[in-house]
Amino acid sequence: MKFAFIHAQRGTHPIGLLCRVLSVSRAGYYAWRDRPVSRRRQQDQQLTQHIQDVHERSKGRYGAPRVHAELQARGVRCGRQRVARLMRTAGLQGKGKRKYRVTTMSDPMYPLAANLLERRFGVNEPNTVWVGDLTYLPTREGWLYLSVLIDLYSRRVVGWAMSERITTALPLAALEMAYKGRRPAPGLVHHTDRGSQYASWSYQRALRRMGAVPSMSRKGDCWDNAVVESFFASLKRELLDGRLFESRARARLEVFESTLGVLQPTTATFSMRLLGSGTVRGATSGRLDSLSTKLRQGQSAAVRPVNTRGGPKGTGSR
Description:
With 318 residues, the protein is an alpha/beta fold.
């Protein structure tokens, strides 16, 4: 470390003075300078370049665990601790955790379902248990609300929708996307919190008609739906980090290009379309690039009402 400091300061101070102050010999410094870079050091330099590329592509969101996972996916062999060490040396870090905030609003007029999941988050088959929830993103134009459904088997988002209004139509649009994309067999366990949108007559009717069995968390217990809560925490940590979106359109674009969009392989075949009241949901077409370009330019896709006849019947709110 002393020789490295001397080498960095050689342009501003005499080398002899630096060596005397740090109690090292000039011969030792020159021997260090002329010594060839070790193989391990060369490998660290190459690995650091890969790390910087992954970190930059994630827009500074990924910490050591996710950077390591991405490197493994690229075929780069390295240890997690080594990645963490090189990230510290390069001054790279992911975005930290955010505080949890309760947003569930229940309605006593709607019936509640029993908690069938009971925190058993390990599932052996796809499309047997879906978990869902709603969250919000702040913009200068007001809130943008997001609804998702996650398959507990793969932990991937199978349905999602965005809107400036937090009505029943929002989770219904996400449910319709999930149903059309996955076509689950009757008996699917559909777990959410006790929010009025999920307990509403129209949403429960949609679940019955697709053969799904409703399940709800206990009152005020976010741990009963921990998988979705963790997903939202990661999404907000990556996108917000204390900042405010300039517009809802900008927020939609960044959500689309994050975990829900191009960073998630399972949604690479989905594009988006705008629904009535500004709701955005996935649609099974291959227009990701063109729609992303439109969102960047501030344009709107064709405005269409929610399709209440395709997919699970009754997916339109009353």
